[in-house]
Amino acid sequence: MHEFSIALNIVKLTEENAKKANANKILAIDIEVGKFSGVVNDALRFAMESATKETMLEHAQINLIDKEAWAICEECHHKFSIENFADVCPECHSVRYTITQGKELRVKSIEIE
Amino acid sequence: MCDTCGCGNSDTEYTLLRPGMADEHLSAHAHDHSHDHPHSHSHDSSEHTHHHDHDHSRTLNIEQDALQQNNLVAERNRGFLEAKEILAVNLVSSPGSGKTTLLEKTLVDLSSSLGFFVIEGDQQTANDAARIQKTGVPVIQVNTGSGCHLDAEMVYRSVKELKITDHAVLMIENVGNLVCPALFDLGEKFRVVIISVTEGDDKALKYPYMFQSSHLCIINKTDLLPYVDFDVEKFKEYALRINHHLEFIELSAKSGDGLNDWYSWIKKQTK
């Protein structure tokens, strides 16, 4: 899958940020993984292990923070948490809703020294 | 073969080829991460010395999308293409859905009235680009190596290489894969997912990310409907559950049935 490319992207963007802050090493990284981010946690963790070799992130602690998904119904404006793209609005059973949260795959913060 | 295996550097290597020039790489292994090799800028010891005085760690807030780099390049592509009034279409599907055949037909039938350019994405070979080249349309092949999707940087380099002209239609045939390409914005205006009736009619439920992010769904190989169990209405119902904005066109690239609907769609988008 695509997790390795994503891991390389994460390494690149965190190293850029760490260098700007004059850091020598990244000790830990917090990554927010939305339920609908399209990324499998175990695959990302595995990919990060090899993508971080010989980088500032080598041996860094990788914290994956799950973020649940929310949607707003376009028919009745009900806000609800969703588990699956095929869910329907629990109030009016419409499939016409917009996902408002849960697609994120964000690097939240890093711990540097 | 996918790049989760993390087999090392090969992920970042891809090759641009012109058909018939298989041994002559246009850009010998485009190492798109080459400037970012982990330590290239940071192993300067003078840069480190004074920091060793501070042993305490600190937290740096980043709040950036993990795919920010790709998204930025995709937006650059999009801006460039929009300014030149180029319609860019990202064609995605499972392997074997008939993407290349549909594209060939489209180019033969429409290239007298519209200026087409094609980017062909595959892990290996320039076979598809060779097929497209026979139609006379300028084409570039991207071989992604171990990569399972095209990304915005590959499209950026291909567009430069193609010397694309104003008001053209750029058809980007992504790597046959319904999973990974869903996450990588290329800067296209429309994403078109192609499914053939020899696949399962619950495909949209199984691969929701691709259907969720597509604008149009082409149901191909409809000439085979009498011989398979594919239920078109059921497929559409499932796909609309995933993405209620999705439009559908049913066609057979082989028999030609329904091709006019697809051609009308393209022409409508170029106006």
How would you sum up this structure in a few lines?
The complex is a heterodimer of chains A (113) and B (271). Chain A has 113 residues and is an alpha+beta fold.
Question: How does this model look, in words?
Answer:
The complex is a heterodimer of chains A (113) and B (271). Chain A has 113 residues and is α+β, with helices and mostly antiparallel strands. Chain A has one domain (3-112): hypothetical protein PF0899 fold, CATH 3.30.2320. Chain A is 26% helix and 34% strand. Chain A is built from two helices and six strands; from the N terminus they run αβαβββββ. In chain A, the strands form two sheets. Chain A has a three-stranded mixed sheet with strand order 2-1-6. The longest helix of chain A is centred in the first third of the chain and has 18 residues, at 3-20. Chain A is elongated, with a radius of gyration of 17 Å. The mean pLDDT of chain A is 95. Chain B has 271 residues and is α/β, with parallel strands linked by helices. Chain B has a single domain (68-270), classed as 3-Layer(aba) Sandwich (Rossmann fold), CATH 3.40.50.300. In chain B, 30% of the residues lie in helices and 20% in strands. Chain B contains nine helices and ten strands. In chain B, strands 2-1-6-5-7-4-8-9-10 form a nine-stranded mixed sheet, with helices on both faces. Chain B is globular. The relative contact order of chain B is 0.16. The chains are: A alpha+beta (113), B alpha/beta (271). The interface between A and B is large, with 52 and 53 residues.
The separation of the N and C termini of chain A measures 33 Å
Major sheet characteristics of chain A: 3 strands, mixed
* Distinct helical segment count of chain B: 9
- First-residue to last-residue Cα separation of chain B: 40 Å
State the CATH topology of chain B. Rossmann fold
| Helix content, binned percent of chain A | 25-40%
Radius of gyration of chain B: 21 Å
Our estimate of the beta-strand percent of chain A is 25-35%
Mean pLDDT of chain A: 95
